[in-house]
Amino acid sequence: MLATYDIVLVEDDVDLGNVVSEYLKLKNFNLRWFTTAAETLNFFATHTKAVKLFIIDVGLPDSNGFELAQQIGRQNPGQVFLFLTARNEKQDRLQGLGLGAIDYIGKPFEIEELVLRANNIISRISEHPTKPVAIPESSILIGDITYLKNQLCVILPGNVQKMLTLRESELLEYLYRQANSVVRKNEILLQLWGADDYFNGKSLEVFISRLRRMFKVSRRVSIENVYKVGYMLKVS
Predict the structure, then answer these.
(1) Which helix (H) or strand (E) holds 206?
(2) How far is CA 36 from CA 28, 114, 131, in A?
(3) pTM higher than 0.70 for the full model?
(4) Smallest Cα–Cα separation from 60: which of 31, 21, 33, 93?
(5) Residues in a beta bridge with 154
(6) Distance, CA of 108 to CA of 85 (rounded, Å)
(7) Would you call 199 helix, strand, or coil by DSSP?
(8) Where is 10: in which H helix or E strand?
(9) What angle do CA 155, 158, 159 make, to 5 degrees?
(10) How many whole angstroms separate alpha carbon 236 and alpha carbon 219?
(11) Per-residue tens of pLDDT for the chain, all 236 residues
C-alpha cells in the first residue's frame, strides 16, 4: 500500500527547512521535505493522492512556488496548499487563492504558528470524502447541499464532501441568510472584511468563483452575479 503523508514541505533554505521539518516531525506529523520543484514533482508523480497538505515556499530556485502548485493542482484538483512567502504583494495572494491556498505565512514566522495552522488545516481535511458523512443536527440544508458550519465543509449531491476555508464558510453563511435576495458587494465587504477596497473586492471575487465551481454539481443552488450591484444565492 502506498504511504500517505500529512505534509510535504518545499523549502530551499536548508537551515529553515531542517528546523521546520524536524519540529513538525517532533509534533508527530508524517512529513517529506524537498528543496526544489523538480524533486517535489518527481515524488508527486508516484504519490498523487497521498499528501494532505503542501507547504510551499513561493521563492524556489527552479520554479515559482505558485507554478509548482498549479502543476500539482492539475493532477490532483482540490489539493490543499499553504504558502510561505517573504512577499506581501496583493497580486501574489490573489494568485494563491485561485490555486487553492488555504493560508499564507509571511517570513519570518514563529514555528509554533506554523504548527498550529498546519494542524488546523489537516484536522479539517477528510481522508475519505466519498464515504457517508454523519450529519449533525446543527447542519444547514441549502437546497440539495448540506452546509456543516462547525466542520467548515459542505456535502454536495453524490455525498461528496468539500472543505471550505474560514472565509468561504463566512461568505456562504452570509449569502444563505439572504438567499434569493440581492446582496450588495459593498455590504459583503464591509460585513466580512471590514473595508470596501480594491484588494478586498478582488478577494471576494475569488471566493465567489470557488464557491460557484463547487456548486456546479447542484441542480438547486447557484450564485448569480447581479451586474454592478452584487450577488444572489439562488436556492430552489
Answers:
(1) helix 198-214
(2) 24, 20, 35
(3) no
(4) 33
(5) 147, 162
(6) 9
(7) helix
(8) strand 5-10
(9) 40
(10) 9
(11) 567 889 999 999 999 999 999 999 998 999 999 999 999 999 999 998 889 999 999 889 998 888 898 889 888 877 888 888 875 555 555 555 555 555 677 778 888 878 887 887 787 664 444 343 444 445 788 999 989 887 788 889 888 888 887 788 889 999 999 999 999 999 999 988 888 888 788 888 889 999 999 999 999 999 999 988 999 999 98
Contact 198, 191 (CB under 8 A): no
Residue 19: other Cβ atoms inside 10 A: 13
Decide: helix, strand or coil at residue 104: strand
Contact 92/85 with Cβ under 8 angstroms? yes
How far apart (Å, rounded) are the C-alpha atoms in residues 164 and 118? Answer: 15
The grid cell for 135 is 450529519
174: its cell numbers:
452570509
